[in-house]
Design brief:
This protein has eleven helices and 15 strands. It has helices at about 20-30, 75-85, 105-115, 155-165, 195-200, 250-265, 280-290, 310-325, 345-360, 365-380, 425-435, and strands spanning about 10-15, 45-50, 55-60, 90-95, 120-125, 145-150, 180-190, 220-225, 230-235, 265-270, 295-300, 335, 390-395, 410-415, 445-450. The strands form three sheets. The protein has a six-stranded mixed β-sheet, with helices on both faces. A six-stranded mixed β-sheet has the order 8-9-7-10-11-12, sandwiched between helices. The chain has a three-stranded mixed β-sheet with strand order 13-14-15, with helices on one face. It is elongated and about 85 Å long. The N and C termini lie far apart (about 75 Å). The relative contact order is 0.09.
Length: about 450
């Protein structure tokens, strides 16, 4: 099912550093695009839904076009902006009111007229009332709809949103919540092929791909439907180690990637099959594990992994390598694929479906208690100070599910005498016993402990 806002689209375009991303964030109602004074920070198309009007609509943020902030990407950025313009019903042309009209603005205005679509001219950075006259500088561009606003101070944004809502096609659909929409964050080191994998899954050049590390800076949400299920693929910036984050933009990108992990339903850790899971890959896997997120591992560039060996042997060897290197997330299924050749790319969906089904698997209370008691008898917990041991009184599986999530972890509630008597190693032992009987593919298992309340003794008078 399509989102009601999927055909009500406004694309934000303009030269670099005029405030496109700041306007995008204001319309989206949250910080999505990275805002920075350095030109060319936004490179990919980034989409979001504006919900501050009676009918929602989609907004697209684009990289700066019309100048050359980075020679390696300028042509690709222009191509991305062209795609956004082509798919939009309305174009929001942003200019800098303080800097005034520039030759690049004039060139862009002529370029946008060729699109033969309605254009709103947004004169940004009009922070004071006495500066409203600065918009007169842009009348020569000849656009009928001109808006003076300040994204930094949230001035004029509500009026702009109302005008966009009125100008876009009327929404005649009845919005319904698709409970099957699964948000998947692709995370990993720079240049392991996250954007290439998304393009391969979409079968088009949706995100900017380059051999230069750091191409993706923002977290880019990419909608996709496969097999009747709606997905949102979140393409994130490559996570470098802290001591290699040289600029504030890289720091912001890392923060955005970690935020994407938190808001995702499933994390797909992308590693380079030819290099195996590196120390940085293990750090990212730890972030995923600590966030209690369902996950899988995608070993990209599998076409280059011992290419002359038989495929079954290559698969078995790769599985063993990943299992050894990422031993602390043994529940994560491994997909060996190649974004370049398309080899086994559809196995991604098979792994996601495995995780989705596992998240729905429950264990009835009677079966769980028998399993726990048998495990305790086979290997009793170690004695603590004073010879006291951890005692399990009762176990049950948490039935409360997070309604905002399509995929949930497996949480078990253990009623016990004292939580502190249970070592972390024994907690892992109980988790492994559960997994021996219920695989919970890709699903993290967690325990919530509820201690027995100690009754205070009352003295007899």
């Amino acid at each position: 099912m399509k989102n009601p806002s999927s055909y009500r689209i406004a694309a934000i375009v303009g030269r670099p550093n005029v405030g496109k991303s700041a306007i995008f964030n204001r319309l989206a109602g949250r910080r999505i695009s990275i805002v920075h004074d350095e030109p060319g920070v936004t490179r990919d198309r980034i989409t979001a839904t504006c919900k501050i009007t009676p009918s929602p609509f989609t907004i697209i943020d684009t990289g700066g076009i019309g100048s050359n902030p980075d020679g390696s990407f300028s042509n690709i950025i222009k191509q991305e902006a062209d795609i956004a313009i082509e798919s939009a019903e309305l174009i929001l042309f942003v200019v800098d009111g303080i800097e005034g009209l520039t030759p690049v603005d004039q060139e862009l205005s002529a370029y946008l007229r060729k699109a033969d679509k309605p254009v709103f001219l947004l004169v940004n950075k009009i922070d004071e009332k006495q500066n409203i006259g600065l918009t007169d500088d842009f009348t020569s561009l000849g656009f009928d709809q001109t808006f003076s606003l300040s994204a930094a101070h949230n001035s004029g944004i509500a009026e702009l949103a109302d005008s966009i809502n009125i100008s876009l096609p009327i929404d005649t659909t009845t919005p319904t919540l698709n409970s099957q929409n699964i948000k998947i964050a692709l995370v990993g080191r720079p240049n392991v092929g996250k954007s290439s994998l998304i393009n391969a899954l979409l079968n088009n050049d949706r995100t900017i791909v380059s051999d230069i590390a750091g191409t993706t800076r923002d977290a880019v949400d990419v909608p996709l439907t496969h097999g009747g299920i709606d997905y949102t693929l979140i393409d994130t910036a490559g996570l470098r180690s802290r001591n290699k984050q040289k600029t504030s933009i890289e720091v912001f990108s890392a923060m955005r990637s970690k935020s994407s992990i938190r808001r995702s339903d499933i994390c797909a850790l992308v590693v380079d099959a030819t290099q195996g899971a590196t120390a940085q890959d293990r750090k990212i896997a730890n972030i995923i594990r600590d966030s209690r997120k369902p996950c899988l591992v995608i070993a990209n560039k599998f076409d280059l992994y011992h290419p002359d060996a038989p495929k079954p042997d290559r698969l078995a060897s790769l599985q063993d390598d990943i299992a050894e290197q990422l031993f602390f997330i043994p529940y994560a299924p491994v997909v060996a694929a190649s974004a370049k050749t398309g080899e086994s790319i559809k196995r991604f969906y098979f792994a996601i479906e495995q995780i989705r089904k596992a998240s729905c698997e429950g264990i009835n209370t009677g079966t769980l208690n028998r399993l726990m008691q048998d495990s305790l008898l086979a290997h009793p917990p170690p004695a603590g100070k004073g010879g006291k041991r951890f005692k399990l009184l009762y176990a049950t599986m948490a039935r409360e599910r997070d309604r905002e999530k399509s995929i949930n972890g497996a949480n078990f509630i253990l009623f016990c005498n004292k939580r502190s008597l249970l070592p972390a190693s024994y907690e892992r032992y109980l988790e492994n016993k559960i997994r021996e009987n219920y695989h919970y593919t890709g699903i993290p298992i967690s325990f919530t402990f509820r201690q027995r309340e100690t009754r205070k003794r009352t003295r007899k008078k």
